[in-house]
Automatic annotation (TrEMBL):
Organism: Mycolicibacterium hodleri
Entry function: Involved in the regulation of glutamine synthetase GlnA, a key enzyme in the process to assimilate ammonia. When cellular nitrogen levels are high, the C-terminal adenylyl transferase (AT) inactivates GlnA by covalent transfer of an adenylyl group from ATP to specific tyrosine residue of GlnA, thus reducing its activity. Conversely, when nitrogen levels are low, the N-terminal adenylyl removase (AR) activates GlnA by removing the adenylyl group by phosphorolysis, increasing its activity.
GO MF entries: [glutamate-ammonia-ligase] adenylyltransferase activity; [glutamine synthetase]-adenylyl-L-tyrosine phosphorylase activity; ATP binding; magnesium ion binding
Family indicated by similarity: Belongs to the GlnE family.
Every Glutamate-ammonia ligase adenylyltransferase repeated domain range: 88-304, 580-817
Region of interest (Adenylyl removase), ranges: 1-478
Obligatory cofactor(s): Mg(2+)
Entry's Gene Ontology BP terms: regulation of glutamine family amino acid metabolic process
UniProt keyword Nucleus, yes or no: no
Record protein name field: Bifunctional glutamine synthetase adenylyltransferase/adenylyl-removing enzyme
């Protein structure tokens, strides 16, 4: 029986090939690709990442070849490997396509059996050409030819089913190619500079960065450092000429990583390099040396350089500033990319290449001195060594390597397109560009998604994995080292290595930290398992906080306290915002953790609700009403005030948490703190009056007048409540009896609020009353009026500027303020003698009240340009002009400042300086309490605590030195205004 004839494939339509009609049909006809012999060639064309660009470039190549086109056309039909290589290049890289059009005979490099030359062979090829010519174009053609061959082998699998080049092979060959190019540039430079018979200098070129690690990109600056036997004019000229020629022929040669950067000498002797790194180098410079490698030039000198400097690299973790420098580098990396393009940046964005590289390099620096297997330059090799050594889980190392190679592959494809240095993905809605990238990266439909969908899903998966592993990388081995095999793990890291790693991540007490980790993960059952899952991420967030040691201890204490509360760990596990915010708060503040221990329900408010963070869902006025109502349910004063304290504690924790997380302005913090203090005073007054109520009803009505910051609505976390009590007899009661009863009420209110408690204290201060401590605790309204009319001293008049009713009888309080207006805003204003007295008292306070040892430049209350300076200046202007300008009748410093500006009493620029100083000092004062956990006004010196104050005060970079510089600058300018206005 005869076999059926084999059916020859028929020509596919242009539409089936994915080409654009009608230009594609015309181009195919011009190439002669319209016969049945070209069917396989056309299907290969359709698999190119961008078939239309490949076709158009092929037409240009045919025109450039002229009569030689037939040779290439026939070869494409017969040579499947050539098809894959050439069409892969033309569909992926317009720049290499242009190179082929300019050098059309170079297609022969892609035909037949093609392999990558060795490093030695590349050096020989480039050196031979450099010996013959100094023409940069000749060497550029050679470099592009070799780049073409590598790219063709790398891209061929996108068109034909050929073996994919391993990622390390591509990076290594690009580095070898860069070495060969640098060698050629050095030959040309030496010949140019030493053409008059001068002996060539002994010069070694040290490759740095990705070239040094032999993991180079297709398009990258090549970082170098020059070492010379003599750093003279000849060696410097040779180095400079080499960089210039290299840029003309190959790529940018960058020497910015040299000592002192671009400001430093281009060429140094070995001794000069050693001296610099021993005395002046920063931690990042030792990190850069991880990838140093002699590339070209004097071999012996290059090896001497490595032998001298490598030991310094592995000792860098012993430097005093290692941790702070590492933290700065991490922040700097994150800040380099604008937020609106961070998701598209595969190098510097979140979950990008730099996350992997930074993490790996840090672990190398931490452990490399004790483990020589980690002393490798390549990121992939270092990850493998870290996995083998137990510093990273083996699976984590493998997964992170795969993610890293995937992102590097995308980076290579993006750069190949136009041979431009880029790390930016196309816009998400640019589907054509994204589809091209997917095809160029060897992606194919997977049954659920088309090529574009596969790329998008893979990008999400890899970015999430890098972000997750970036945290886990540091901490999972630490957890395993303290678990001791009890929950399915065997120790993979020695205690000494674990302590080194924790110390490098910012923990000053690594032994204690390991104890806390063991306790947290040692719980049996669900709690221990959830902690094992949570801790890698939590510890990573904690390490970014100013005090991770204190934060970890606080986390352990809270976790122990809430051990039986299932919602606690569930919230941390399921609400990422809750966990991240909690770690920031715990690692910054000593004030809030103590509150959270007794008001843990506030942690739930760290979550986001439909309208934003739940921490902002509470209205201060509504909370005040609830506090008063809660206390009102109890007749027994201690129980009533305990209920009030509970709500106050919760509100303090909420406000302080929102403050630390940057959710509240400083004025909103002051308002909320004042509101809760006022509510507590009202609740205490109500319960004490009920407990002391005579059978016939109260003999007096009582009002509480807020003074100082309480009256101004500007309380801070550490403020006492300055008050005065005023009474008035009612119901025909004798005035003396009314006063006695009112004094009893006032004394019991003070005592009740002053009862010792674990909460921040509730101190009621009555020293601003007439005659101070020696005066009666309570007076009638008539007594106050008579005293102020006859005996008021200047300081008492000034104190009344902040008087405001805060609790008790509203009508009595209102009448007290009307009476006070006669004293604080008298017709004709204050006398010149009173102004002089105010200035004298202020001078005495400046000289005597500053605590012993305090720095007057950084004391937030009494220091230069601090709160007292601004407030006394504002109050002097109120006293002098308040009788004429009603808008100055405000107890708020900022409102009074605004009124002063509106009335044009002083220049608007001076108003701004005083306002900024008051806000800056108030933020700093609040931050001091949040960080230290107790009232204080003195900013600390440079160090961890100052950094914490900077973070708590909302300073963006978290750098304490920058924060302090700004504080000094702002207060210095305000002081100049104070001296002019207050000092007359």
């Amino acid at each position: 029986m005869a076999k059926p004839a084999t059916q020859r494939p028929t020509l596919p339509s242009v539409g089936r090939l994915g080409l654009v009609e009608p230009p594609a049909r015309t181009d195919l006809n011009r190439l002669g690709w319209n016969t049945d012999d070209h069917v396989e060639l056309l299907w290969s064309l359709s698999r190119a990442p961008d078939a239309d660009i490949a076709l158009r470039t092929m037409v240009r190549l045919a025109d450039a070849l002229g009569q030689d086109w037939d040779e290439l056309n026939l070869a494409l039909v017969k040579d499947r490997a050539l098809r894959g290589r050439l069409l892969g290049v033309l569909g992926s890289s317009t720049a290499l396509g242009d190179h082929l059009v300019a050098q059309p005979r170079s297609w022969h490099l892609l035909a037949g059996r093609v392999s990558l030359p060795s490093a030695g062979e590349l050096r020989r090829i480039f050196a031979e050409l450099a010996e013959k010519t100094s023409d940069a174009n000749d060497l550029r053609v050679l470099y592009r030819d070799r780049l073409l061959v590598l790219a063709a082998l790398d891209l061929a699998p996108t068109v034909e089913n050929e073996t994919v080049l391993p990622f390390p092979t591509v990076g290594e060959h690009l580095a070898d190619l860069a070495d060969a190019a640098l060698g050629a540039a050095l030959i040309v430079a030496t010949r140019t500079v030493c053409k008059d018979g001068a002996p060539p200098p002994r010069l070694a070129v040290i490759a740095m960065g990705k070239c040094g690690a032999r993991e180079l990109n297709y398009v990258s600056d090549v970082d170098v450092i020059f070492v010379a036997e003599r750093a003279d004019a000849i060696s410097t000229r040779v180095a400079g000429e080499m960089m210039r020629f290299g840029a003309d022929a190959f790529f940018e040669v960058d020497a910015a990583l040299r000592p002192e950067g671009k400001r430093g000498q281009l060429v140094r002797t070995l001794e000069s390099h050693v001296a610099y790194y021993e005395r002046w180098a920063k931690t990042w410079e030792f990190q850069a040396l991880l990838k140093a490698r002699p590339a070209v030039g004097d071999v012996e000198l290059g090896e001497q350089y490595m032998a001298a400097l490598k030991p310094m690299v592995w000792a860098a973790r012993e430097r005093e500033d290692f941790v702070s420098e590492v933290q700065k580098m991490r922040r700097r990396v994150e800040e380099l990319v604008p937020a609106d393009v961070r998701a598209r940046e595969i190098k510097l964005g979140t979950g990008g290449l730099r996350d992997v590289e930074f993490a790996v390099q840090l672990l190398q620096l931490v452990h490399g001195r004790n483990d020589e297997s980690l002393q490798v330059a390549s990121t992939v090799d270092a990850l493998a060594a870290l996995g083998t050594g137990g510093y990273v889980g083996r699976d984590d190392a493998a997964n992170l390597t795969a993610s890293y190679e995937f992102l590097r592959l995308l980076e290579h494809r993006l750069q190949l397109q136009r041979l431009k240095r880029t790390h930016m993905l196309p816009e998400p809605d640019d589907e054509e560009a994204m589809r091209w990238l997917a095809r160029a990266a060897h992606m194919r439909p997977d049954g659920q998604h088309d090529t574009l969908g596969v790329l998008r899903e893979e990008l999400k998966r890899q970015s999430r994995r890098v972000s997750r592993l970036h945290a886990k990388l540091f901490y999972q081995p630490l957890l395993e080292s303290v678990e001791g095999g009890g929950v399915g793990f065997s120790p993979s890291m020695s205690p000494e290595a674990a302590e080194r790693q924790l110390a490098a991540l910012g923990y000053e007490g690594p032994q204690s930290a390991l104890t806390h980790l063991a306790a947290l993960t040692g719980s049996s059952g669900r709690r221990g398992r959830v902690q094992q899952v949570l801790l890698p991420t939590l510890l990573d967030w904690l390490s970014d906080s100013p005090d991770p040691d204190a934060g970890l201890l606080a986390y352990r204490r809270i976790s122990d306290e809430l051990a039986e509360q299932r919602w606690y760990l569930a919230s941390l596990r399921d609400e990422g915002a809750v966990a991240k915010r909690l770690m920031h708060v715990l690692g910054t503040s000593a004030f809030v953790p103590e509150l959270l221990m007794r008001a843990p329900e506030v942690i739930r408010q760290y979550a986001d609700g439909p309208a934003g963070p739940k921490l902002l869902d509470v209205e201060p006025d509504g909370l005040a009403r609830a506090l008063i109502a809660s206390a009102g349910r109890y007749d027994e004063p201690l129980r009533a005030i305990a209920a009030a304290r509970t709500l106050r504690r919760r509100e303090l924790a909420r406000v302080a948490s929102a403050d630390l997380l940057g959710m509240l302005e400083v004025t909103e913090v002051c308002t909320a703190l004042t509101s809760v203090w006022v509510a507590v005073l009202q609740a205490a007054l109500d319960v004490v009056m009920r407990a002391n109520m005579p059978a016939g009803g109260p003999p007096a009505r009582i009002a509480v007048i807020g003074m100082g910051r309480l009256g101004g609505g500007e309380l801070s976390y550490g403020s006492d409540a300055d008050v005065m009590f005023v009474c008035e007899s009612v119901g025909g009661a004798e005035e003396s009896a009314a006063v006695r009863w009112s004094v009893t009420i006032a004394e019991q209110v003070r005592a009740l609020l002053g009862t010792p408690s674990a909460d921040p204290p509730l101190e009621v201060d009555t020293n601003l009353r007439p005659e101070g401590r020696s005066g009666p605790l309570v007076r009638t309204l008539a007594s106050y009026e008579a005293y102020y009319a006859r005996f008021a001293q200047t300081w008492e008049v000034q104190a009344l500027l902040r008087a405001h009713r805060v609790a008790g009888d509203e009508d009595l309080g209102h009448r007290f303020l009307l009476m006070a207006d006669k004293t604080r805003y008298p017709p004709g204003g204050v006398s010149a003698d009173a102004v002089q007295e105010i200035r004298r008292v202020k001078a005495r306070i400046d000289a005597e009240r500053l605590p012993r040892g305090a720095d007057p430049n950084t004391h937030t209350k009494l220091g230069r340009g601090g709160l007292a300076d601004v407030e006394w200046t504002v109050q002097l202007l109120q006293l002098r002009h308040g009788h004429q300008i009603p808008s100055l009748h405000s107890t708020s410093t900022l409102d009074a400042l605004n009124a002063i500006g509106a009335a044009e009493l002083i220049a608007e620029g001076d108003i701004d300086l005083l306002r900024q100083a008051w806000l800056t000092a108030t933020r700093a004062r609040n931050a001091l309490v949040l960080v230290k956990g107790k009232p204080t006004d003195q900013l600390p010196g440079p160090g961890r605590q100052l950094n914490a104050v900077a973070v708590a005060a909302g300073w963006d970079s978290g750098d304490g030195s920058e924060f302090l510089d700004n504080y000094l600058r702002v207060t210095r300018r305000a002081k100049s205004v104070v001296l002019r206005i207050f000092g007359g």
